């Protein structure tokens, strides 16, 4: 008879991802918590030289598995070769980092008073969704601006993840996820040391 294995706390981190996506538009300061998904994988790969974050702790990865595998929402087709190529993966990483720096620049301009706060959630770096429902009591405009910019990045990458989950394998996003590409590069560099 099979014994049921006890679920580990980190196997439920997909719930945190959903909460993050839902709460941030209503209190944009929540968007800052998304930085954990940036710094934790980088720190783990730098300190431990492995991809434990991707394999265990990534809520988004778990969410894609849940929707694609368990709920069978994925067509489960092979991830296209071009998507797996280094050209695409590193090209997307450069594009992503450029957009990230652009977002930081906007935040800086608001901090310096050269630009006014824009309450806009930008989807796929193109479509602007004016959003006036976000609360941000007592926060400086640049803190709020960062929240809008960062949430836009998190939402955009989630949408890309969902679309590729629907079209191909559930975790196809992980093939070109900038964090995955960065941590993989760090691990390779560490192995060479
Ligand atoms: S590749 Fe990206 S989305 Fe996939 S598990 Fe790693 S950090 Fe998460």
Overall geometry: globular
Tell me the Rg in angstroms.
18 Å
Mean pLDDT value: 94
- Whole-number count of domains: 1
Query: Structural class of the helix and strand makeup?
Result: mainly alpha
Number of helices: 9
Structure description:
- There is one protein chain.
- This protein is mainly alpha-helical.
- It has one domain (10-192).
- 62% of the residues lie in helices and 4% in strands.
- The chain contains 9 helices and 2 strands; from the N terminus they run H-H-H-H-H-H-E-E-H-H-H.
- The chain has helices at 13-23, 36-48, 52-57, 59-70, 81-84, 86-112, 141-167, 172-176, 178-192, and strands spanning 120-123, 127-130.
- It starts with 12 loop residues before the first helix and ends with a helix.
- The mean pLDDT is 94.
- Iron/sulfur cluster binds at residues 41, 54, 58, 60-61, 173-174, 177, 179-180.
Short characterization:
62% of the residues lie in helices and 4% in strands. It is mainly α. It has one domain.
